[in-house]
C-alpha cells in the first residue's frame, strides 16, 4: 500500500504549487492555451483539460486547455503551442517525449509545468516542477496527481481575484545584462536547413533565418543557440 | 528553489522592478501556499477516514472481484467528465499495472466513435448501458464512478449490468445519491464530502485499494 495519503504536503511543494498557479493565471490572462500531455497515463491529461474547460464550480471561467494524446506528442505540441502558451505534463522524469518537449519549451516560448514522482527531472528542466519523492510507480493511480492538478485549478482561480497582479509580464528585462535584448545565445529549434550554410529556426520571438556555418551539420528538430543571426552551438539533448 | 526563500523575498523572482506590487504578489503567493497546504491536509484526512470506513467493504468487494477474474470475468469502468478519466486510470491500473499481473479491464469512454454513435443515435443516457449489452457477460464486473451518484447514464448502465449478472460497484460522493440503497448497485462506496475535487481524490485511492485487495486475494487463491 502506498504511503502517499498518509504524509502531509511539504511546504516546498505548496510553494511550488502557489508559484505555478500564479504563473498559470498570468498566462491565461494574456490569452494562453494550456496543452496537457501524459504519455504513460493520458487520462491525467484529459482530466486536467476538462477541469479547466468545464469547471466543477458553477460560475468559474472556462479556460482554454486541451489534452494531446496519441502518437508523436512532441510533433503535436510543436504544432499546437504558440509563444506565450503553457504546456503541462504528467510523467516520470525519464519520459523521452516529455523531456523532448520540455527542452524545446524555451525555443517555442512556452511556459512549462511538470507533475510527477520518483527521481526528479534535472534542475531547470521545467519552469515549475510539482514533484512527489515517493518512487512507487503506482502512485499515478492513487489520487495524488489528481490532488495536485485540482489544487492548481483552485489556486489559479484564486489568482483571478487579483487582476492587478496578473497584467505584468515576468519576461520583461530586469537583469543588468539582459540575455534576450543583448541577443546572448537564444535557444532555437531548427525548422529547415538550406544549402550555403543557412537555416530557418523557431525561437520564442518567431521564425528567423540564421547562418549555420559554425555549427556543423544540422537537421530539423535540432536544438541550437542563436547569437546575432548565427547558430553558435548545437545543444545536447539530455 | 526553496519555498522559504520565496516567502522571505516574495517578489525577487517575479517583479523586482515594481515596488508598488512587490508586497502584494508576495502576500498572494503566501496565501496560495497556505491554502494548498490546508486543502492537501483536508484531502489526506478525508482519504484516511474514507479508507477506514470502507475497509471491510473494500475487502469483500476485492474478494468477489478476484473470484470473478479467476473464472474469466472482466472489468468495465465508466463515469462522466473528470470521473471518466479516473475510471480510465483505474482500468489501466488493472490492465497495465507497473509490476503486477495484468487483468482484463477497459474504460467504456475509450472509443469516441462508439460514444458519439450511441449518444447521437440512442441518446446520451444509454452510452454505457448499450456498450454493456453488446460486450458484458455474467461473470464480469462493472465499476461506475460518480461524485453525485445521480447521473442517468450511470444508473441505466448499473441496471443493465446488474440485470445481466455482473457484479456492480458504485463510487459516489456527497450523501451517495441514487447509488445508495439501489438494488442495481451491489457495493456502494460513498465519500462523504461536499467537494467534487476532494471526493475524486478519495475515490482514486479507494480504487487503488480495491486493486490491491484483488491482488491480495489472488495471492491467497
Short description:
Chain A has 238 residues and is α/β, with parallel strands linked by helices. Chain A has helices at residues 11-29, 42-53, 73-80, 96-108, 144-159, and strands spanning 34-37, 65-67, 86-90, 111-117, 128-132, 186-194, 198-203, 206-211, 223-227, 230-234. Chain A is globular.
List the helices and strands and how they pair.
The complex is a heterodimer of chains A (238) and B (221).
Chain A: H1 11-29, E1 34-37, H2 42-53, E2 65-67, H3 73-80, E3 86-90, H4 96-108, E4 111-117, E5 128-132, H5 144-159, E6 186-194, E7 198-203, E8 206-211, E9 223-227, E10 230-234
Chain B: H1 3-8, H2 19-70, E1 75-79, H3 82-95, E2 105-107, H4 112-121, H5 129-135, E3 141-145, H6 152-163, E4 167-173, E5 187-191, H7 196-220
Summarize the structure in words.
The complex is a heterodimer of chains A (238) and B (221). Chain A is of the alpha/beta class and 238 residues long. Chain A has helices at 11-29, 42-53, 73-80, 96-108, 144-159; strands spanning 34-37, 65-67, 86-90, 111-117, 128-132, 186-194, 198-203, 206-211, 223-227, 230-234. Chain A folds into two domains: 8-165, Glucose-6-phosphate isomerase like protein, domain 1 (Rossmann fold); 186-234, SH3 type barrels. In chain A, strands 2-1-3-4-5 form a five-stranded parallel β-sheet, sandwiched between helices. Chain A is globular, with a radius of gyration of 19 Å. Chain B has a single domain (49-220), classed as Rossmann fold (3-Layer(aba) Sandwich), CATH 3.40.50.10490. Chain B has seven helices and five strands. Chain B has a five-stranded parallel β-sheet, with helices on both faces. In chain B, helix 2 (19-70) packs parallel to helix 7 (196-220), helix 3 packs parallel to helix 7 and helix 5 packs parallel to helix 6. Chain B is globular and about 60 Å long. The termini of chain B are far apart.
Amino acid at each position: 500500500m502506498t504511503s502517499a495519503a498518509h504524509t502531509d504536503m511539504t511546504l516546498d511543494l505548496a510553494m511550488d504549487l502557489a508559484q505555478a498557479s500564479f504563473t498559470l493565471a498570468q498566462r491565461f490572462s494574456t490569452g494562453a492555451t494550456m496543452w496537457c500531455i501524459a504519455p504513460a497515463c493520458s487520462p491525467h491529461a484529459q482530466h486536467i483539460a476538462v477541469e479547466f474547460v468545464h469547471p466543477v464550480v458553477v460560475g468559474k471561467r472556462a479556460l482554454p486547455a486541451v489534452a494531446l494524446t496519441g502518437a508523436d506528442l512532441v510533433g503535436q505540441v510543436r504544432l499546437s503551442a504558440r509563444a506565450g502558451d503553457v504546456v503541462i505534463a504528467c510523467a516520470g522524469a525519464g519520459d523521452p517525449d516529455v523531456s523532448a518537449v520540455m527542452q524545446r519549451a524555451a525555443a517555442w516560448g512556452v511556459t512549462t509545468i511538470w507533475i510527477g514522482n520518483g527521481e526528479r527531472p534535472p534542475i531547470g528542466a521545467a519552469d515549475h516542477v510539482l514533484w512527489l519523492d515517493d518512487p512507487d510507480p503506482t502512485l499515478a493511480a492513487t489520487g495524488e496527481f489528481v490532488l495536485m492538478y485540482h489544487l492548481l485549478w483552485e489556486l489559479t482561480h484564486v489568482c483571478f481575484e487579483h487582476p492587478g497582479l496578473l497584467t505584468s509580464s515576468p519576461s520583461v528585462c530586469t537583469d543588468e545584462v539582459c540575455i534576450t535584448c543583448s541577443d546572448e545565445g537564444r535557444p532555437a529549434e531548427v525548422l529547415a536547413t538550406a544549402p550555403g550554410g543557412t537555416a530557418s529556426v523557431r525561437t520564442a520571438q518567431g521564425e528567423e533565418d540564421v547562418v549555420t556555418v559554425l555549427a556543423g551539420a544540422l537537421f530539423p528538430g535540432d536544438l541550437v543557440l542563436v547569437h546575432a543571426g548565427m547558430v553558435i552551438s548545437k545543444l545536447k539533448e539530455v | 528553489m526553496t519555498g522559504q526563500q520565496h516567502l522571505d523575498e516574495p517578489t525577487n523572482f517575479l517583479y523586482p522592478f515594481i515596488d508598488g506590487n512587490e508586497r502584494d504578489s508576495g502576500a498572494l503567493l503566501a496565501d496560495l501556499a497556505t491554502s494548498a497546504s490546508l486543502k492537501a491536509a483536508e484531502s489526506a484526512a478525508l482519504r484516511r477516514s474514507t479508507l477506514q470506513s470502507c475497509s471491510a467493504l473494500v475487502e469483500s468487494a476485492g474478494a468477489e472481484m478476484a473470484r470473478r477474474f479467476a473464472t474469466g470475468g472482466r472489468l468495465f469502468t465508466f463515469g462522466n467528465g473528470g470521473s471518466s478519466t479516473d475510471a480510465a486510470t483505474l482500468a489501466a491500473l488493472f490492465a497495465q499495472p507497473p509490476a503486477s499481473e495484468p487483468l482484463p479491464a477497459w474504460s467504456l469512454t475509450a472509443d469516441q466513435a462508439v460514444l458519439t454513435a450511441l449518444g447521437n443515435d440512442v441518446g446520451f443516457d444509454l452510452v454505457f448501458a448499450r456498450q454493456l449489452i453488446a460486450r458484458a457477460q455474467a461473470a464480469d464486473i462493472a465499476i461506475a464512478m460518480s461524485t453525485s451518484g445521480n447521473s442517468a447514464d450511470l444508473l441505466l448502465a448499473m441496471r443493465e449490468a446488474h440485470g445481466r449478472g455482473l457484479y456492480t460497484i458504485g463510487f459516489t460522493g456527497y450523501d451517495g445519491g441514487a447509488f445508495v440503497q439501489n438494488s442495481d448497485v451491489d457495493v456502494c462506496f460513498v465519500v462523504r464530502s461536499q467537494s467534487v475535487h476532494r471526493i475524486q481524490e478519495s475515490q482514486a485511492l479507494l480504487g487503488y485499494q480495491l486493486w490491491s485487495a484483488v491482488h491480495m486475494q489472488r495471492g491467497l487463491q
